[in-house]
Amino acid sequence: MKICSLHLLGLLAMVLVSVCADGQGPNSKLRMEKMEARMARMEEMQKHLLTTLTQNEELTNRVTALEQQIAAWNIGGIVKNITAIESIIKRPTNDGDISWKLISSGLVLMMTIPGVALFYGGLVRVQNVLSTVMQSFSIACLVTILWAAFGYSLCFDTGSPVFGGAKKFWLQNVYGNHRHPLSPTVPEPLFCMFELTFAIITPALISGSFADRMRFGPTLVFIAFWHILVYCPIAHSMWMTDGFLHEAGILDFAGGNVVHISAGCSGLMSSIVVGKRTGYGREQFQPHNILISVLGASLMWVGWFGFNGGSAEYANGQATMAVLNSQAREDCSGYGLSVVDVDGVEDKEATEAEHPPASLGSLVERSLGWSPSPQEQGIARSLALCAILTLPLQLKSRFGYDDALDAFGIHGPGGFLGGILTGFFANANVQILSPVNGAFYGNPKQLYGIAIAAVWSCAISFLLLKLVDYTIGLRVAIDEELLGLDMVCHGESMFPQRSAVPSDWPKSEYSGSLRAENFNETIRGQQDWHDATFHGEGEEQEAELTGSLANAPG
Fold it and tell me: Ammonium transporter AmtB-like domain location, by residue (predicted)?
């Protein structure tokens, strides 16, 4: 109505101006009559327009629907897509970036197979080596299928603030001539492959927490749901342009929150829900082969150059600094733990088994945010990590949970320390990408990402483990656990002479499967048999080896 009134007043003013200009002429009377007639027509038009606007419900409904449609448009998403297209246009594909991304993809995949497989395989007991290695290989195969079907789209397609959309399910619209806005200088299939290696290694790290006692089938069921419900939402929220943590400016350079905090916290929940290994606290679980474990950790060490360096997305100065910083921090932590480790100080000796966890823990800490902090902080952060790495070992003995291979002990403290220090010390003046300040520079939001990733991982992992345990059971039976998962789950053994089930092996009422809630009901006869058989056999082999060395020539 206001628009109509203003329109009428405007026309009236034009008429008055025209009359005033020519009012003194011989035809002024005629012009006056024309003006009155024009004003009468204008009043009729105004009445008709007002009647139409107030009585035409169809027009009103159409206007309302149009307003709702405009309000429903994702203007923010459209702007982000336009920005992504502009970045792709400004950055054509680069052969150097493609080469570095290809190398990095291979390096990160090597971290899982064979890196994690050998690292964990050397730390478990001899009767569980093959099952531990099999878990890493099977997880790699399972996650690859899930990634192609749903995972990539849920992580790196635009959608909601937590989950991606469905436009890239089964790798639709992922072609060699397409590029992703997060890595605009390489083909999108290569970006998809690089991110797949991160999705593979994360659940493989969790498997160290429930080593020696979790059944093979339930392991894969848990990992499948964990990938969809834990990894994908955290990755999308943290890395994708429309993720709510990314929009908040929370930094995660190479997976400190997405990979290490989620894997560490989920591993902690696994060790609690699945329960302790039979005999935990009463006998020493000696590593099967420290050499194999060190070789696996070494492969992970080298692979981390692609893990951190490839996360720079370009073959540039940021990638070179990531590689250099990774090497420097690995050496500092590996040496530092030998000096400050609690056991080393008390026993006056440093063992080779202590070096890999320290070095890997430093790489975890570095993964979240070397880029946003000044380089001179790197050495101090690595040395601080050495003291923190001993804390989970003390917590294990204090609270009694059995994190078998220290998945939480390695990745939890490193991820938390990296996130906390980045949250405090991040400085926009020293960053190449995503200039964001930390708490010491007036921006405490960096610390929120740690809490969100930890709480989400713990809560969903706990619920998934309880659900799987309630439906199909998590643990093997106690007698099967003592015999070993190699024979029970896979029907083979590292040493064929031990592959036959002994005739005097005592059976339990839980043979076949055992729910985690019942595992505390230990069968002492089986434990005594295990101690007498394996420990006695070890003593006989040691005596035989000692005699052979004594009789050797020279």
Answer: 100-493
Q: Give one word for 281, left, alpha or beta, with left for phi > 0 and alpha for psi -120 to 50.
A: left
Q: Which tokens in the block code for residue 493?
A: 């053994």
Amino acid letter, 413: P
Residues 134 and 200 placed together within one structural domain of the fold: yes
Phi, psi angle pair for 180, to nearest 5°: -95, 140
Whether residue 196 sits in one domain with residue 287 = yes
* 135: phi then psi, degrees, rounded to nearest 5: -60, -45
Q: Radius of gyration over alpha carbons of the chain, in Å?
A: 33
Round to whole Å and give the CA distance between 550 and 461: 54
Chain position carrying tokens 């809560």? 459
Q: Which of the listed residues 418, 447, 471 is the one where a domain comes to its end?
A: 471
Residue with tokens 């069921």: 221
Q: Which of 64, 68, 42 is nearest to 53 (CA)?
A: 64
* Residue that finishes a domain, picked among 411, 439, 471: 471
Is the dihedral angle over the CA atoms 323, 116, 369, 148 positive or is it negative?
Answer: positive
Among candidates 463, 464, 468, 426, which has minimal Cα distance to 444? 426
Residues 15, 363: Cα–Cα separation, whole Å: 81
How many folded domains does the chain comprise?
2
Residues 533 and 417 in one domain: no
Distances (CA, A) of 368 to 119, 125, 177, 249, 411: 22, 33, 31, 14, 11
Domain that holds residue 507: 478-542
Alpha-helical regions (H) of 129-259:
129-146, 152-156, 188-206, 216-226, 232-239, 244-247
Q: Does one domain contain both 318 and 432?
A: yes
Would the pTM of this model clear 0.85, i.e. be above it? no
Name residue, tokens 């639709």.
Answer: 172
Is there a domain that residue 547 lies in? no
Q: Say how far apart CA 334 and CA 71 lie, in whole Å.
A: 56
